[in-house]
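Data deposition worksheet. Section B asks for the primary sequence of the deposited chain exactly as it was used as input, without tags or linkers unless they were present during the calculation. Section C holds the resulting structure in token form. Section D is free text for depositor observations; keep each observation to a single sentence. Incomplete worksheets are returned to the depositor.
Section A, Depositor: J.P.
Section B:
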Amino acid sequence: MVRAAVGWQERRPMTPRRISAWILAFDLIWIALALGISFVIRYGLDWGIAGAPFLSLAPFLIATCVVWTFLSSTLNLDGFHGGWRLPAVVSHVVSALLCTMAILLALAYLARNYMSRLVLLYFGLLLLAGFITIRCIAYVLMRAKCRQSGVWRVVVIGTGHLVRELAEKFEHHPETLCSVAGMLFPQDSAAEDLEFARANPHSVTLNTFGVADYLHEQRVDEVIVALPYAANPEFRNLVDRCRECGIRISVVPQLYELYVTRPRLLDLDGLPVLQLREPHASAAYVACKRLLDVALAALLAVPALLVVLPVGFYLRVRGHHFWRTELRCGRHGKLFSMLRLDLDRPSRSSSRVERALEALSITELPQLWNVLCGDMSLIGPRPEPPDRVQNYSEWQHRRLGITPGITGLAQVHGLRDASSSEEKTKLDLQYLMHRSLLIDLSLLLQTAWTLAMRLIRGPRSVPRLSSLDSSSPESRLTSEDALLSAYRSQSSAD
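Section C:
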């Protein structure tokens, strides 16, 4: 028999808005402390130094707080948006800090207000260290809270991959203070779901009438429904019984458009209307991104040539061509020739040098020419060959709506060209909905982090395909802490 939670206490899940507000509050406190510490480091405790009185920093402090509050609210700088990843947290904070410092320098210049460069340097370094520390402490506290018995216990009802995807997302978002206690699969679920349920040693078989009582006994706080037929009478009966037992109900819409739209709930006198808004990039963003692409590609062209030329001659000696072109689909499916060094991926050679070239993506450097030509961008979905694109679903075709890139959100998550198009599409569309210049800069920094980690760990540690590890929700469900993985064996009419 499964173990139930010990004790009954009032608890509630942490919403992303609450954790963001707390982190922003500590950020603002640290801004004031960091500015004072920077002043003391530069001038000591003499508060009346000519040309740099401490009170003159008040406008600078106010401007910093205003700019950081704006960036935090628009760019979700709490570190938990999109799932906790330390490289993403550092990259987002660095990008936002660079933007903040640029704005402050511009304001100081326009106001002709003197600001010591050393104070500004100390201030920026202290902010970087403090902001990252605040987010790491918040993550550790959330993880520690999730391991306690007072977390919000959730059970997911549904079929297919969506159920396991929900469990995985809760695992990556400890700030919700929710723990997936188990899953419920209806009797008419796919064979894969039922086999998964039967393979779990803690699974139980229940009829519809017994589900609500069993969930109440196990101290479940909320049921999340991910069923395409959630309106049938049998299910509505289950919902009513759960409500009578004090169990909250949440519903996941079954529309694929939600992956590529910004949903907003409108309440019309008690009638909920889910509005789907298509994400649109402004003309200013498109123009600025193109300028950024050209500037950075031109800046990187010379050092890239210093790497590509000797590597190309090495490949010629090994019997390869210098480079090759591959036909790929760009924006709106337009075909173009993508350049790359003539090396297979994954490398079939036993040469350690060639494995290192492939692991560090040196083979992709010639694509800077594609960026200068306008066929590609530095940041965007990786372009795929026509034979893959012609098998795209309507949902996957959405990734063709933006210019492909050398790197992107899928790549910093470890997905490569050989990875599933389905997995890459989810991340590419997530980027499509939240595009901004600061996000692009953050992804460039995350790419540098990823390549540095590959260089440190060596070529053999490069991930080939994304997969769930032993810490994933699917493996956790077979542990002693799992609550249930039940499927219905009979209807309520029996």
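Section D:
The longest helix spans residues 283-317.
The chain has 16 helices and twelve strands.
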